[in-house]
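We were asked to recover a plausible sequence for a given structure. The inputs and outputs are reproduced exactly as logged, with field labels preserved.

PROBLEM: sequence recovery
POSITIONS: 343
GIVEN STRUCTURE:
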């Protein structure tokens, strides 16, 4: 399996731990065995396997802390003009292609779970004729604030079209912040953001968009954030922390592009035909995910929303990280939807 190589930088503006942060890391890792022992017997893990219970307990412990940014440098295969890169999973293919935007709060690089998911998508696409799968490596916040990522997603879509892909053969997909990026790109196509290059002209609507736990608002006012705070892998405070990082310095007149729930999607049916919207019953983002589904439906798009029982934020990615990706109900939904949309 191929993977993205990464490194951290100790140069000014890069990643450097203070003495207090070193102590915080030490205390965190010393606490992990206790967190795992407590977590595997927790009420919220009663329906999960041992492996998922351990994985989720570690995740809850790690994301209960606030982290400084880590600058990650990956080495791409197709360099884009906007400082980003496209990583193909297997051979390039433009007659059918899934353009994937990874999650991580715009602050973290792709995880092993993301790469496992993409390889599974590539392999399982053979059942419906096969498809190209390509991952966008975008620049990370806070070193590269909004609209950097939207600029790079726009360049990625333009690149595929220039290479011969037809809009009707392209599906955008992404989890969490990656789902945000797909929705930001739709907003840009409908009404171009003046501070970045214009969107490509579409001769037809894109085939579809598969959104996995899309991060549609950077606030935490929706009831599901409080209701699921102890059940989700990410705490309410951590959602707010990541949201504050993204919104820092964003002008008010650009919020409609930065935050999907603030965007006007009128006319979206001319941009994309089908949307799959996946969320977990136990994630903080559940209400906003349902809200964006209603907004897209009102714009005339065929939207299918799937809520996984007991699922947390990015449950599909977590399953792949724990080595149980193919057992994920949400992944089966995704595979079935892709087959239906491409047939």
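RECOVERED SEQUENCE:
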């Amino acid at each position: 399996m191929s993977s993205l190589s990464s490194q951290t930088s100790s140069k000014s503006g890069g990643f450097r731990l203070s003495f207090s942060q070193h102590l915080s890391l030490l205390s965190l890792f010393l606490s992990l065995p206790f967190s795992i022992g407590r977590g595997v017997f927790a009420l919220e893990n009663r329906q999960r396997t041992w492996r998922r219970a351990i994985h989720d307990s570690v995740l809850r412990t790690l994301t209960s802390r606030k982290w400084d940014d880590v600058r990650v440098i990956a080495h791409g295969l197709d360099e884009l003009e906007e400082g980003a890169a496209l990583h193909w999973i297997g051979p390039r293919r433009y007659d059918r292609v899934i353009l994937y935007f990874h999650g991580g709060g715009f602050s973290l690089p792709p995880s092993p779970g993301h790469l496992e998911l993409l390889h599974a998508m590539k392999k399982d696409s053979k059942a419906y004729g096969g498809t190209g799968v390509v991952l966008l490596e975008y620049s990370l916040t806070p070193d590269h604030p909004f609209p950097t990522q939207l600029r790079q997603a726009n360049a990625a879509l333009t690149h595929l079209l220039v290479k011969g892909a037809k809009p009707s053969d392209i599906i955008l997909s992404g989890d969490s912040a990656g789902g945000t990026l797909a929705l930001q790109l739709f907003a840009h196509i409908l009404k171009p953001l003046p501070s970045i290059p214009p969107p490509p002209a579409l001769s037809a609507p894109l085939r579809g968009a598969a959104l996995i736990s899309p991060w549609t608002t950077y606030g935490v006012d929706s009831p599901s954030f409080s209701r699921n705070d102890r059940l989700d892998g990410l705490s309410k405070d951590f959602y707010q922390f990541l949201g504050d990082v993204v919104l820092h310095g964003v002008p008010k007149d650009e919020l409609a592009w930065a935050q999907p729930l603030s965007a006007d999607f009128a006319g979206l049916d001319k941009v994309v035909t089908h949307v799959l919207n996946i969320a977990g019953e136990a994630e903080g983002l559940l209400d906003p995910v349902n809200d964006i589904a209603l907004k897209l439906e009102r714009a005339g798009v065929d939207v299918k929303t799937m809520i996984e029982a007991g699922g947390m934020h990015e449950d599909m990615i977590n399953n792949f990280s724990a080595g149980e990706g193919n057992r994920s109900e949400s992944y089966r939904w995704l595979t079935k939807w892709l087959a239906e949309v491409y047939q």
